[in-house]
Write a structure and sequence with these properties.
single chain, alpha+beta, Helix Hairpins, Heat Shock Protein 90, two-stranded antiparallel sheet, binds adenosine-5'-diphosphate
């Protein structure tokens, strides 16, 4: 009810306003009739009809044109103050009022309709865009879920293998050692055997520790929360730190180091980079036969320093050269294997330095060559 009365009120207002404009101007012109000719009056009426049609709509403008016709005829066309028209040419003025009202009204209604359509279209586009965004969000949530499911199952695999195996050895060694102790001993162990069990416990706890450290490191690299401590560091020092750490692993291999002369300093986290070189040396020693050669090279290529570790083992087949950088990935063809985390961590470290890491066939088509680059000058 309230709505209807509001509509009526606005309608009455629009019609009333359109007509009263004519009456007011007719009244004013009537009082100046001696000075104003009928063409000026007709033009003023036309102007008002045009304004009414544009702002109030076609129908109020038509009513205004009717009022204009009557007023024009009665007050301004000779003989004035009668309804008769002496000059038939003045009929043209009537026609002009009506046609103006209709055309201007239609035009403004058309413009209004177009504006409304454009508004509707905008709303529709916004709606579609929001739907699309929703769909994208849902899809990426589903993808993230799938990824996390995949991660969970590979994590479970890793946990069963990498935590269970050392734990089983530790438990067995400790049980044996306990059984050889005290008054109720069931096993006799000589000093050498006792030492062997203690060594197993020592090695296996190290393995467990490495696994946990690897997991934590990977989680940090992946979450992007690994804070790089970048300083201008020398490549020679980074490589020699890694070689020193890997000394024990490399004792059965021939090591060759080829460093380009005058290598520039690089702005990197030296500790993290030495970790990457260590991982590559560790892999080279694990996956290549004893007494074979491992070559560490560093050269400048354009704006980068390129470091590579080349071994003479079985190599990495092209199909899995991308996969080896995924966490927990291990190539089953290798009887020895670690946690499948080393290259994933190395990848994260190199990427966070703005570098690249990839795999090639080794020199002379032998073994694997893991290459990585770091930019020479990187903005901190
Ligand atoms: P892992 O701890 O198993 O060595 P990595 O992430 O370091 O894990 O390596 C992933 C896999 O890539 C390894 O299991 C191995 O199969 C393969 N791989 C890595 N380096 C070499 C290499 N130098 N030669 C042959 N295979 C390699």
């Amino acid at each position: 009810m309230e709505k209807i009365s509001k509509i009526i009120k606005t309608k009455i207002f629009r019609y009333g306003f359109a007509v009263s404009g004519i009456f007011v101007s007719a009244f004013m012109f009537e009082n100046f009739q001696t000075r104003i000719n009928s063409t000026t009056v007709a033009l003023a009426f036309l102007l008002w009809i045009l304004i009414s049609a544009t702002f109030l709509g076609r129908n109020p403008a038509l009513l205004a044109s009717l009022a204009a016709m009557l007023c024009f005829n009665f007050f301004f066309l000779p003989p004035v103050r009668t309804w008769t028209i002496s000059d038939p040419q003045n009929l043209v003025a009537w026609g002009a009022f009506t046609v103006t009202a209709i055309i201007a009204g239609e035009l403004s209604a058309y413009a209004r309709r177009r504006a409304l359509e454009a508004e509707k279209q905008k709303i529709e586009i916004e709606r579609l865009y929001n739907e699309l965004q929703d769909a994208f969000e849902k899809a990426s949530r589903a993808e993230a879920l799938k990824q996390s499911e995949k991660l969970k199952s590979s994590l479970l695999d890793a946990v069963t293998h990498d935590l269970r195996t050392p734990l089983t050895s530790i438990k067995a060694s400790v049980t044996t050692l306990l059984d050889s102790e005290g008054g109720h001993r069931t096993i006799e162990l000589d000093t050498e055997s006792r030492l062997e069990f203690l060594e197993i416990i020592d090695e296996e706890t190290d393995r467990l520790n490495n696994f946990i450290e690897g997991m934590v490191e990977l989680a940090r690299v992946e979450a992007g929360s690994m804070r790089l401590r970048q300083t201008f560091s020398s490549i020679e020092e980074i490589i020699s730190t890694a070689l020193k750490r890997a000394e024990n692993l490399l004792k059965n291999h021939r090591i060759r180091v080829e460093l380009e002369k005058d290598l520039p300093l690089v702005s990197v986290d030296a500790k993290a980079l030495a970790e990457v070189v260590y991982t590559l040396l560790d892999n080279a020693s694990k996956y290549s036969p004893e007494n074979s050669q491992i070559t560490v090279k560093a050269v400048v290529t354009g704006e980068q320093v390129q470091i590579s570790v080349n071994d003479e083992g079985g190599g990495i087949s092209p199909e899995i050269r991308e996969k080896v950088f995924e966490k927990f990935f291990r190539d089953e063809v290798n009887p020895v294997g670690g946690l499948g985390l080393g290259l994933a961590i190395a990848h994260g470290i190199i990427e966070s330095h703005g570098g690249k890491i990839w795999i090639d066939t080794g020199e002379n088509e032998k073994g694997a060559k893991i290459i990585f680059t770091v930019p020479i000058e990187k903005e901190l």
